[in-house]
Write a structure and sequence with these properties.
The complex is a heterodimer of chains A (423) and B (147). With 423 residues, chain A is of the alpha/beta class. Chain A has 14 helices and 17 strands. In chain B, strands 3-2-1-4 form a four-stranded mixed β-sheet, covered by helices on one side. Classes of the chains: A alpha/beta (423), B alpha+beta (147). At the A-B interface, helix 12 of A face helix 1 of B.
Amino acid sequence: MSASQPMTGVDQSQGRERRLNVEEVRQDFPILSQQVNGKPLVYLDNAATAQKPRSVIDAITHYYESYNSNIHRGVHHLSQKATEAYEQARVKAQRLLNASESREIIFVRSTTEAINLVAQTYGRKHLRPGDEVVVSAMEHHSNIVPWQQLCQEKEAKLRVIPINDKGELLLEEYENLLNERTRVVAVTHISNALGTINPIEQIIEQAHRYDAAVLIDGAQGAPHLTLDVQALDCEFYAFSGHKFYGPTGVGILYGKGALLDSLPPYQGGGEMILSVSFEKTTYNVVPHRFEAGTPNIAGGIALGAAIDYVNQLGLENIKDYEDELFRYATERLSRFPELKIIGTAEDKASILSFVLKDIHAHDVGTILDQEGVAVRTGHHCAQPVMDRFEVPATSRASIAFYNTREEIDVLAQGIQKVLEVFK
Amino acid sequence: MSFLKDLYQEVILDHSKSPRNFSELSDANRTADGYNPLCGDKVTVFLKLKDDVVEDVSFTGAGCAISTASASLMTQSVKGKTLLEAKELFRRFQDLVTSGTAEGAELGELEAFLGVSQFPVRVKCATLVWHTMQAALKNGEESVSTE
């Protein structure tokens, strides 16, 4: 870490005055202190999955070592303890999103499952032939395909908000797409391929003028931005645990309580019922109605630990730090005349997609890997974005709060090596 | 850099920058498409078979340096070969890029791909065009995928 990132050591009570001490923060992440291909690991693939702090790993171990048990049924001690910890995690997610009730928080496997849940419950209930669903041209495949499937089944129409050359949504075009047949607007908070932060407040407000429900894909948004679903007024907000420094296999779907009450179940099974006979099944209340089967208990509890960890650092401190490092990275990479950044929105999160001359992203990725640098290469599950920018693939460096300026310099040196190999 | 030099040998860099037989073949009687969904590499192989012999061969498509060079060198090496010889060449090439030994392979310039074996995720880049060529030999209009 260069001296240009001073750590003030001001205590937490002073809130916004506190800065991240990146060297201290890195100590919390056991995986970071290793060598890859003989070089110190430079992990810049955080938009694919983030690394886990010790407290998250410990939460999983502690659960399995000391109170592994099934939840919501047993009357015995361990079951009660596990239930309590799992439900506490739900409350932590509720507070993170500033939802008004904990029952508005549904545990799912991933953002993908959350979107499928909404498509299969809200979507199937409300869509009629000729209705419309609006997505954007910068969506991840997981916020396209579930709606495409639904539209096919319901003979509804999928409409797409276009983007400009910077990778920003064209909001006037969006306004023109909206009409009284629009039932759902499903848009990402932050683009995983471009880094664009979308003006979701405005998107939600416009959709509501046509009584359309809004789902925000927060897979990239939740780890970087302070959230308030009540102020946003979106119907649904979804994010994944593993991009939030928590484990894989667990995610969160927020839904407005009264709306969730009106929806049919997603999957059938245990937990989602109140009573079952062969004649009739009575469904359980929200959120359990949407949580059939034994869930990822350890994962939910560990996601709670990840939320604690992020809160302790402070999301605003995290964003300040990431923004500063991102500006440095953008400036550093822009020095290469052969490098073109894909996605240059005014409002951007710490995601840097780029192409290097006509060198394929996989060749870039392989050479960077030899330098210990992990970036994502490919279409980032956003093929329509690649088509829009007429590139087959990009290399993507995505920054987290544990990355350093030195690591950005190593990335830049790696890019120099790529250019030497392909000169 | 040594692993990298093994992977990106001069002959590979040369063929990736100026691929040979890189065009559609107007009198082809066999074609096949290949696709690697992992990286988006796409290739189309055109073959002109006469009796049992590959009289002419070409390719089009877009991909990484390894896949483009592999396609280019594949066309050079199967031209004039019989069906059986082409298949045998593929078998030996696949051995080379997976096992990492060129001993007895007698693959000529194709031995430049020896270094690929040190990069398991890149093996598909090297073999995509060969799978596609084999699909074209088998029955023509067909699409292969590495997944």
